[in-house]
């Protein structure tokens, strides 16, 4: 099969050694991103807390923005809640929730996917399994919190998110504050990224041959059009990364979108090629700095992160997205209308995306 190429987003920097930008560093090579994510001398920017039940409280209590001393215990709360969820059951539930929407809208001939399915189904399925009293009402609340979750959100969005956090707490099962916050954190972390994955799979994969498995489709879409394009770390002291001196307190922007196209680990990096870089028709290696770097075993995309803070919801995200995407692949075809994206420093999620019914 002659697979197409998916060119990088115009904002994606080329892959190379760390580059100083605005007093910090932009990191683009696969090995360098992994090195930072697995080195405890680089920490996440910590979010200060706030009054109980507010967005600031949520940010200050979830593992995602916690300092190294608080992180393991808080992460364990989320991991424990996820352990009870069976990915196969999540996939089936996602498909079950998707089908009636398509049945209802089929006569219109076309459908907008992001609001009707991608932003709704994964969160509603997860909210039900995590015990929220009203999973459908949780969806708009989680969406509102997600819009203001990352530090730097505008005050109007934060005010709306404060009310949404209170609503989510009111519909959550009784639990100590840290457990309740980290359960809501799971929903908020899941929302945009999983919606973006569904959007990217629909955009790039709806016309793919039916023989292509949805798991392979999602893996390659995560690599070439990652819904999470980057993450941040701060150096706690003077460090060296790929020969560069990184000063104390330097901010690092780790670009998954660039690292996922690193020719050192992904020969023919722009080619949409489900199955991975060790396929026979890929080149056996690439020449880098005058040396032949041999293609190794397939390297997974960095879109779920790596190291002790890597995404604990990867299997769940894939299962939830698969349920929606499989139904869409069976019943829809691309609409070929322009796809619009919400502006965001690190996420890449369509605001609207249309499909046609077959
Ligand atoms: C396609 C969908 C998803 C993508 C691409 C994604 C990506 C990521 C990444 C890159 C991180 C690490 C950020 C960093 O190290 O700075 C992360 C963390 C996290 N993700 Fe996901 N995620 C997805 C879906 C989900 C889902 C469905 C859940 C929950 C069911 C989830 C829960 C979390 C949590 C709780 C963290 C914080 C972990 C910690 O504090 O150690 N994510 N995710």
Short précis:
Helix content is 43%, strand content 14%. It has 358 residues and is α+β, with helices and mostly antiparallel strands. Strand 9 and strand 10 (291-294) form a beta hairpin.
Describe the secondary-structure layout.
Layout: E1 19-21, E2 24-27, H1 30-37, E3 42-43, H2 55-61, H3 71-83, H4 87-105, E4 110-112, H5 113-118, H6 121-129, H7 135-148, H8 155-170, H9 177-205, H10 214-224, E5 230-235, E6 239-241, E7 244-246, E8 251-255, H11 256-259, E9 285-288, E10 291-294, H12 314-331, E11 332-334, E12 340-341, E13 350-352, E14 354-357
Parallel strand pairs: 2-8
Antiparallel strand pairs: 1-2, 3-5, 4-14, 5-8, 6-7, 9-10, 11-14, 12-13
Helix pairs in contact: 2-9, 3-9, 4-6, 4-12, 6-7, 6-9, 7-8, 7-9, 9-10, 9-12
Bound molecules: protoporphyrin IX containing FE.
Q: Could you please describe the fold and organization of this structure?
A:
Helix 4 (87-105) runs parallel beside helix 12. Strands 1-2-8-5-3 form a five-stranded mixed beta sheet. A three-stranded antiparallel beta sheet has the order 4-14-11. With 358 residues, the chain is of the alpha+beta class. The chain has twelve helices and 14 strands. Bound molecules: protoporphyrin IX containing FE (HEM).
């Amino acid at each position: 099969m002659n697979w197409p190429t998916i060119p990088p987003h115009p904002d994606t920097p080329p892959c190379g050694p760390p580059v100083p930008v605005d007093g910090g560093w932009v990191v683009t090579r696969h090995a360098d991103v992994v090195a930072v994510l697995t080195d405890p001398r680089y920490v996440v920017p910590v979010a200060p807390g706030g009054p109980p039940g507010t967005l600031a409280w949520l940010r200050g209590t979830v593992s995602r923005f916690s300092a190294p001393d608080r992180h393991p215990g808080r992460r364990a709360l989320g991991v424990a809640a996820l352990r009870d969820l069976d990915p196969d059951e999540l996939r089936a539930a996602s498909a079950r929730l998707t089908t009636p929407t398509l049945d209802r809208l089929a006569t219109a001939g076309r459908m907008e996917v992001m609001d009707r399915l991608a932003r709704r189904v994964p969160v509603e399925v997860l909210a039900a399994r995590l015990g929220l009293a009203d999973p459908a009402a949780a969806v708009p609340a989680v969406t509102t919190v997600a819009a203001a979750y990352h530090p730097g959100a505008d005050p109007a969005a934060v005010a709306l998110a404060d009310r949404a956090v209170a609503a989510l707490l009111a519909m959550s099962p009784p639990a100590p504050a840290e457990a309740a916050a980290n359960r809501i954190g799971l929903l908020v972390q899941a929302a945009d990224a999983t919606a973006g994955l569904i959007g990217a799979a629909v955009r790039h994969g709806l016309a793919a041959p039916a023989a292509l498995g949805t798991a392979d489709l999602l893996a390659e879409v995560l690599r070439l059009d990652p819904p999470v394009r980057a993450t941040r770390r701060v150096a706690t002291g003077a460090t060296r990364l790929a020969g560069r001196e990184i000063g104390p307190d330097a901010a690092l922007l780790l670009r998954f979108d660039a690292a996922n196209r690193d020719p050192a680990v992904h020969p023919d990096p722009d080619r949409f090629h489900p199955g991975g870089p060790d396929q026979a028709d890929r080149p056996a290696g690439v020449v880098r700095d005058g040396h032949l770097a041999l293609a190794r075993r397939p390297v997974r995309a960095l879109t779920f992160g790596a190291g002790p803070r890597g995404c604990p919801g990867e299997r769940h995200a894939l299962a939830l997205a698969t349920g929606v995407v499989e139904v869409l692949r069976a019943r829809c075809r691309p609409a070929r209308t322009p796809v619009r994206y919400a502006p965001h420093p690190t996420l890449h999620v369509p605001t609207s995306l249309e499909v046609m019914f077959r």
